[in-house]
Design goal:
The complex is a heterodimer of chains A (about 650) and B (about 375).
Chain A lengths: L4 H39 L1 H12 E6 L6 E2 L5 E14 H4 L2 H9 L6 H13 L5 E8 L1 H9 L7 E10 L13 E3 L2 H5 L14 E3 L2 H5 L1 H5 L3 E7 L5 E8 L7 E3 L3 H11 L4 E7 L5 E7 L4 H6 L3 H9 L8 H4 L9 H10 L9 E3 L2 E4 L2 E4 L7 E3 L1 H7 L2 H11 L1 H10 L21 H8 L5 H8 L9 H13 L8 E4 L2 E2 L12 H16 L18 E7 L6 H5 L15 E8 L6 E7 L5 H18 L13 H14 L14
Parallel strand pairs in A: 2-10
Antiparallel strand pairs in A: 1-8, 2-3, 3-4, 3-5, 6-7, 8-9, 10-17, 11-12, 11-21, 13-16, 14-15, 17-18, 19-20, 20-21
Helix pairs in contact in A: 4-5, 10-23, 14-16, 14-17, 15-21, 16-19
Chain B lengths: L16 H4 L2 H21 L4 H24 L2 H25 L1 E3 L2 E7 L2 E3 L1 H19 L8 H19 L4 H18 L3 H21 L9 H11 L10 H12 L11 H4 L11 H35 L2 H25 L17 H19 L7
Antiparallel strand pairs in B: 1-2, 2-3
Helix pairs in contact in B: 2-3, 2-12, 3-14, 4-5, 4-6, 5-6, 5-7, 5-13, 5-14, 6-7, 7-13, 10-12, 12-13, 13-14
Classes of the chains: A alpha+beta (about 650), B mainly alpha (about 375).
């Protein structure tokens, strides 16, 4: 539009005025922006700097190396071995399915493994390494490494895993580790952050569990820089943790191996102790299982097989099994009577094969009767009537006190799982637990270790140590921690009258050295290794009238789980004893025929520091024994290597 | 014909035009764009090819377009104003029916290989249209209610179409740019007072519409407003971005954490670090000094434009330059206010610095018009 000059000037003036106005407003706004920058960047920069650091820095725990467990001589019972695994990083590997199928041509992967691995891979962000296969051996790893150029994103990695070189031999005592479970976390007040690490393993049973804190060590950490999606960009610094302490046990690997092998196929257990120190040299519970299975993650089938086995492989019978001690309890009854002055070792009792008391007839195991017996012959021949007779005079209170003095009914504080206290019954116990008064029949049953009395093989071994030394020996399993020797517990004198104890020991000696002794067939012929012992056959079920009518007379004819438990306790040598052994064979039949030969072999092995020597055995038995020893020594192999098996993630 | 009022003889012609290009403006624009190249290189982690190089190519191309536009006489652009506005408006209508949906909003038209953003075009076209309108209108009638109403309609119609796309940021910029030209043209201040009053009323209305079936904004836009009003409300949800952006900005401190040392941007905590939030990467790495430096460059551009507008002595040229400059001011002011937590996150890029070709091209087309006005300014014969 054509404008007059006046209009043009007017327009220009008005525009300038308005421009100045709005320009001023814009400057004010710019000033506001600068003030805001000042407030954020100068005023609050410290806070924002801190927030930025919190964003970018993550702390990752470094699991410490778990302590190694040794036997008394330094043989490795539990250690950490390198564990090769294959990890896949999706963003480098491309299509996971194809990568996995290529991998399956190199290492064994079942279609299920591939399926599972693929699911696992897709669950994570593409840069997260996912473990495809675990517990690989070196050959497989080498094959994968050799094919690395053809398989981007697939790499072998080294981790650490627990390994038990002697497998089943120490499954119950050393125990095993496994992944942390929900229950493990709930059981802890303030769980170590280490337990939150995926795949972190903690002790589940045995020493591994009870000494968990000692063995675990403390975590190290590394500070890493991460990006917004959590990918690690670089490591800022690293502080290694303290490795766990090494634990040395009192167990002797050779003796443990021999003991477990000697128990063979039976459902049985045996404990070997040093009588002077209380050191436990062997704790064998048969059958056993391979703890390495649990470390790798046991398969459902393997676990079901262990769980459903009627010989209960997973139970540590040496401390968890509580059995009626049977005749091995008779020393308790005898000592209770003599220490109370209610009888003398020379007193003779007539055994007609039974005793009538409290309106009942109590049979001797020998229904024909033993005739006149005194303490030594009653122990040697295991006459029941002699002890029935003593017990009526002594009463349960004194028997109970003596049993406790000898170490029965006590829960020993050993780092093992499920340690049982057995049962040393008293009047109070029966009233509290059974709601009934103690009757004389209970005392008579208790006098021969039947009725309510229960003892674990460990307790029987402790009792034997105490009988051999007249001191309150306590069992000891931990020799040293990080080379610091753990003290041997106090062993105050038991205060048994030496003359009386000597008579009891004499009776035990006759059991396996006198030709009327119940374990004479299991005698040791070389004098410096001779043992003193006591057989026991504890009734689980009485042979019923119906069975008797059906002609069943002996244990062999009963079904396995109705037979008597066979027990034997012993110490050797007979002078200056060094070792004590207890053996319990569940449903084994008779103590003299089943438990005593096992105990003899074990105590000879202990005394020889290896295998029993043939010249210790009576000449006629030597051929049979030689075969047996050879079979066992073949079973005792060198420690296994970790490459024996594998499982997959 | 209106072009007769331009004295062609006294305007430079031919290659002599190069001498009359507003070189200080070119220099300032290039300085700002260079800050962008530097930051794009930094946030890509030192990968030149990723963002910096394409951005430089686009800048070079856009700069050529700017000069080309600048060499065309201003009367031509004035005569194109109505056409530009009309086409942009029709395209805005078209985008409603044929537009592609991206980022939750209908914003562009696919025309063969070209992706057209009519709302971007409208930012320039509205300034051209309003400058032409007030150049055509008798000065004495600018405050006449009817002619004000016409102007308001010319601005509000495209702004409404952009708002329902829905692109709140661009709608605000169209309103702002158009309103500023009205302001420069001398429309009575009473009208502006009334509009501000109405604006306050509208905001109230928008909030009142929330949750009803005539809701005026999309849910995500309401959430962005909530995040702005209270960033602590939901630190991992809608306000995560703005919180991370503030951390990046604040952690820069006085002189920053150093070039390529910004952890928030390098480690991807900062969202949209190469586009809307690129200012925060600058603030993180160069601190208060760097932030104020960039702001100063921007103000320099505005000042250069205002000077050019004062020199123009031509109603259309002055209004055009001031409108373009005002538009540019809205760009960086809204973006900076947004990334500093002073305004809701509305999706306005930092002009010439944020990665993206379309916005850069439109901005430099705008400055091309400024250059045209500068080059073809009638000068005294020397």
């Amino acid at each position: 539009m054509k404008r007059s000059p006046k209009d043009n000037e007017d327009s220009a003036r008005r525009i300038s005025r308005r421009a100045a106005l709005l320009g001023g407003a814009q400057l004010v706004f710019a000033g506001v922006l600068v003030l805001r920058m000042r407030s954020l960047q100068l005023g609050q920069s410290e806070e924002f700097r801190l927030l930025a650091e919190e964003n970018r820095i993550n702390i990752r725990l470094l699991p410490p190396a778990r302590g190694v467990i040794y036997d008394r001589a330094g043989a490795v019972l539990a250690t950490n071995v390198q564990n090769y695994r294959i990890v896949l990083v999706r963003e480098d590997a491309g299509e996971p399915r194809e990568a996995l199928e290529r991998l399956a041509q190199i290492i064994a992967l079942t279609p299920e493994d591939i399926e599972r691995a693929e699911r696992e891979i897709m669950r994570h962000r593409p840069f997260v390494p996912v473990t495809i296969a675990d517990q690989l051996n070196w050959e497989e790893v080498a094959r994968v490494a050799a094919n690395a150029p053809a398989m981007p994103g697939v790499t072998p990695e080294v981790g650490w895993t627990r390994f038990y070189p002697f497998g089943a031999e120490f499954a119950h005592s050393v125990g095993y580790v496994g992944p942390v479970s929900e229950r493990d976390l709930e059981a802890r007040e303030n769980p170590d952050p280490l337990l939150m690490i995926p795949r972190f393993q903690i002790g589940k049973i045995g020493v591994e569990r009870e000494y968990e804190e000692t063995l675990r060590g403390s975590a190290g950490h590394r500070r890493i820089e991460v990006n917004a999606v959590g990918r690690e960009m670089r490591e800022l610094d690293r502080q290694e943790g303290d490795p766990g302490s090494n634990v040395r046990l009192t167990l002797d690997r050779q003796l443990q191996a021999f003991t477990l092998a000697r128990l063979g196929e039976e459902s049985a257990s045996a404990v070997v102790m040093e009588v002077q120190t209380g050191n436990v040299l062997a704790l064998a519970s048969a059958p056993s299982f391979d703890p390495n299975l649990f470390v790798r993650g046991i398969s459902v089938a393997d676990y079901a097989a262990l769980r459903d086995n009627d010989h209960r492989p997973m139970s540590n019978k040496t401390v968890q099994g509580a059995y009626p001690p049977g005749s091995t309890f008779k020393m308790v009854t005898a000592l209770a009577a003599f220490e109370a002055g209610l009888s003398t070792p020379d007193e003779r009792v007539f055994c007609p094969g039974y005793l009538d008391a409290a309106g009942r007839r109590f049979h001797c195991w020998n229904r024909g009767g033993h005739g006149r017996v005194n303490l030594t012959s009653a122990l040697a021949e295991s006459c029941d009537v002699f002890f029935y007779d003593l017990s009526q005079r002594v009463g349960i209170d004194r028997i109970n006190a003596m049993a406790e003095r000898l170490g029965l009914g006590i829960r020993y504080d050993l780092p093992l799982s499920g340690v049982s206290s057995g049962l040393n019954p008293s009047r109070e116990w029966k009233r509290d637990r059974r709601g009934a008064d103690w009757v004389i029949g209970d005392t008579i049953n208790a006098s021969i270790g039947q009725g309510y009395v229960l003892a674990t093989p460990l307790q029987l071994a402790v009792m034997t140590c105490r009988l051999a030394t007249n001191r309150a020996i306590l069992p000891r399993l931990i020799h040293s921690i990080d080379d610091v020797e753990q003290p041997i517990p106090d062993q105050p004198p038991l205060g048994l009258t030496p003359a009386v104890l000597a008579q009891v020991q004499r009776g035990m000696w006759e059991v396996s050295n006198s030709n009327r002794g119940t374990a004479y067939r299991s005698r040791i012929v070389n004098t410096e290794q001779r043992m003193a012992g006591k057989t026991g056959s504890s009734q689980v079920f009485s042979i019923t009238a119906a069975e008797r009518a059906a002609g069943i007379r002996s244990q062999d004819q009963l079904p396995w789980n109705r037979r008597d438990h066979a027990l034997f306790v012993c110490y050797a040598p007979d002078v200056d004893p060094r070792y004590a052994v207890s053996v319990v064979v569940e449903h084994g039949g008779g103590g003299s025929s089943v438990a005593a030969p096992i105990a003899r072999d074990i105590i000879l092995a202990a005394q020889n520091g290896g295998l029993p020597a043939l010249e210790s055995y009576p000449t006629p038995q030597r051929n049979r024994i030689e075969t047996m020893i050879r079979t066992i020594s073949d079973q005792i192999g060198p420690p296994a290597t970790p490459d024996n098996g594998r499982s997959r993630a | 014909m209106s072009y007769l009022e331009y004295n062609v003889k006294r305007s430079p012609s031919g290659l002599r035009k190069v001498l009359y290009v507003n070189w200080p403006l070119v220099l300032l624009l290039t300085a700002v764009a260079s800050v962008g190249f530097l930051q794009l290189y930094s946030v890509s982690g030192g990968d030149f090819d990723r963002w910096a190089e394409p951005q430089m190519q686009r800048y070079a191309l856009s700069l050529a377009v700017m000069l080309a536009i600048g060499f065309v006489p201003l009367w031509f652009w004035r005569s194109m104003s109505v056409l530009a506005y009309g086409v942009s408006f029709l395209l805005l209508v078209g985008v409603e029916f044929f537009g592609s949906v991206g980022m939750g909003a209908q914003r562009w038209l696919e025309l063969g290989p070209i992706r057209l953003q009519p709302s971007e075009m409208m930012k320039i076209a509205i300034v051209m249209m309003m400058a032409t309108y007030y150049d055509w209108l008798d000065i004495r009638r600018v405050s006449h209610p009817f002619w004000v109403l016409v102007a308001v309609f010319l601005i509000a119609a495209p702004a409404f179409l952009v708002l329902i796309q829905p692109d709140l940021g661009t709608a605000l910029m169209i309103l702002g740019a158009g309103g500023m030209v009205m302001f420069f043209a001398g429309v009575s201040l009473w009208y502006f007072g009334a509009v501000i009053g109405a604006g306050v009323g509208l905001v109230t209305l928008v909030f009142a519409s929330r949750g009803t079936d005539w809701q005026l904004l999309r849910d995500y836009q309401f959430r962005r407003i909530d995040a702005f009003l209270d960033p602590t409300l939901d630190p991992l949800g809608s306000s995560y971005h703005i919180n991370q952006a503030m951390i990046a900005l604040g952690s820069g401190g006085w002189s920053g954490r150093g070039f390529m040392q910004g952890t928030q941007s390098r480690l991807n905590f900062l969202p949209e670090k190469h586009t809307d939030f690129i200012f925060n990467t600058l603030a993180e790495e160069f601190g208060f000094i760097g932030s104020v430096f960039l702001l100063t460059l921007y103000i320099g551009i505005i000042v250069t434009c205002v000077i050019a507008a004062m020199q123009a002595k031509n109603r259309f040229a002055s209004l055009l330059i001031l409108g373009i400059a005002g538009n540019f001011f809205l760009y960086f002011a809204i973006n900076m206010a947004m990334v500093m937590g002073l305004a809701p996150v509305v999706g306005v890029p930092l002009p010439l610095v944020s990665y993206g070709g379309s916005a850069m091209l439109m901005i430099l087309i705008g400055f091309g018009l400024v250059q045209s006005a500068c080059i073809h300014r009638p000068r005294e014969k020397s």
